[in-house]
Amino acid sequence: MKLPRRYRSFAGLAVAVTAIAIALGVGYPSDRPNNPSAFLSTYLSPIAAQAQTLAQSNQSSNQSANQPVNWATIEQNIITEHNRIRQNPQSYIPILEAYLARMNAQGNIPNGCGQNCTLTTNEGKPAVEEAIRFLRNQPAVGALTLSDNVARAAKAHAQDQQGGEVGHTSSDGSSLSQRLTRFGVQPLSAGENIDYGSTTAQGVIISLIVDDGVPSRGHRTNLFSPNWTIAGAGCGSHAVYRTVCVIDYAKGSQATAANNRLSVINNGTVDLLSIKIAERELLNGAVARGQSQNVTLSANQSCTANLTIQLGGNYSRLNWNNLDLCGATITIDSRNQLSLRYPTSS
């Protein structure tokens, strides 16, 4: 069997299906073999060919890869880009169209993995075209709150793999949930995406949204899952793929129904005109720029609800679904992006 010669292919293979199994807390997806070791054997097989592709990169590319990297900036930008695509999926369509334009007739990208190194793909252009179609119809979901402790867990796993390891299990056998617990995070549920080979935050998100070679598009599922409320990213060098970036997700501890207050803070450039649940207005008048408002949910209102939010100016209505509202704070930042925070988020 001829193995695919790809530089960044592993991010679109075993990680995705493993991640979705963790994230959803269910059994293996139907396209995953019942024997986990067989699954790993099947999906890790391209590694040798990828390593050979890396070895064929020229000296200039290797020197570039050895330049100092500001991992902290990349990690922060990953969460920023992640929230960008969650809150405005259509904003990434021009980015993917530009990515598609770089592909040759075979669906490969010359110099895509360094000078004189061609990035080859499993699915070629159809995967990118499918991702663009997906984004056209994907509704916005809530922004993720950066959790320092979740980020520490992600960073520890990235550092653990610097010798060339791959996958979701740490070298000491720790699982994702065990790593989160070690850093003081006790989530209701958790998930993980791992990307190998990308050198920019945008590159990581492109890789995960296209999800080349993954029939289940498991990375993409994690990207847009409304289940996650907090997240953190950790990146580092990798002996085989040059870089590894881990994104860990969690659903924060749900507040009790007795704590039925929702706080709204507007640090944006436009007024917050409306927040509705099932067409019922929650706000006592618009929240002006620089102002805040506390909302008391009715006694029969569930903590979990779907919101419809309307900002002033030319902003379209935002549907934000499956949110745990009790005890939470909705914040509009200076770029008019929304985030949801909990007192126990980290």
UniProtKB/TrEMBL annotation:
Q: Where is the SCP domain?
A: 136-248
Coiled-coil stretches: none
Report the superkingdom from the record: Bacteria
Start and end residues of each stretch annotated as Disordered: 154-176
Q: Where are the transmembrane segments?
A: none
Q: What's a Pfam family in this record?
A: CAP
The record's section on InterPro entries has:
CAP_dom (IPR014044), CAP_sf (IPR035940)
Which PANTHER family does this UniProt record tie to the protein?
Answer: SCP DOMAIN-CONTAINING PROTEIN
This one is known as SCP domain-containing protein
